[in-house]
């Protein structure tokens, strides 16, 4: 998803799930452009979900994507990744690494904050490497 690109054809407002999917698509496209290779998207297990899992060279990168509309005033999307969410992502990452036989790999946890308009147009994307 390029800056200003919309998910809807008619300019209508997206619901929360659609807006989140638009943010994840933009984040994945950005990370691919940075040379990362996707392994999984919305990977789930009993302990939780991880939005994006990619390889950055030999490093496994777990990415939490937070998408907000530009008219919100509750702080940044990245600030919403609290300690509880960090613990959940860390626990879920261990299950993924075990299942994929990647326990010997180094890992990193990133956060991508996406600001979008209500119709899905991407306004900005901020990538925080080693966020936690």
From TrEMBL:
Which InterPro entries does the protein's record reference? Restrct_endonuc-II-like, tRNA_endonuc-like_dom_sf, UPF0102_YraN-like
- Looking at the record's lineage, which domain of life comes first? Bacteria
The record's annotation in CDD domains points to: PoNe_Nuclease (cd20736)
Question: Could you tell me which residues belong to the region Disordered?
Answer: 1-21
Q: Which GO terms describe its molecular function?
A: nucleic acid binding
HAMAP family according to UniProt: UPF0102 (MF_00048)
Tell me its family: Belongs to the UPF0102 family.
Q: What is this protein called?
A: UPF0102 protein PM3016_5176
Species this protein is from = Paenibacillus mucilaginosus 3016
State the taxonomy lineage: Bacteria, Bacillati, Bacillota, Bacilli, Bacillales
């Amino acid at each position: 998803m390029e800056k200003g690109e919309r998910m809807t054809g008619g300019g209508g407002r997206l619901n929360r799930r659609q807006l989140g999917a638009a943010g994840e698509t933009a984040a994945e496209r950005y990370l691919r452009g940075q040379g990362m290779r996707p392994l999984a998207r919305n990977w789930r297990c009993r302990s939780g979900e991880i939005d994006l899992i990619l390889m950055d060279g030999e490093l496994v990168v777990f990415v939490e994507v937070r998408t907000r509309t530009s008219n919100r005033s509750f702080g940044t999307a990245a600030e919403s990744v609290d300690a509880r969410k960090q613990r959940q992502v860390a626990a879920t990452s261990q299950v993924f690494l075990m299942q994929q036989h990647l326990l010997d790999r180094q890992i990193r946890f990133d956060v991508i904050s996406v600001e979008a308009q209500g119709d899905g147009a991407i306004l900005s994307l901020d990538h925080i490497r080693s966020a936690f």
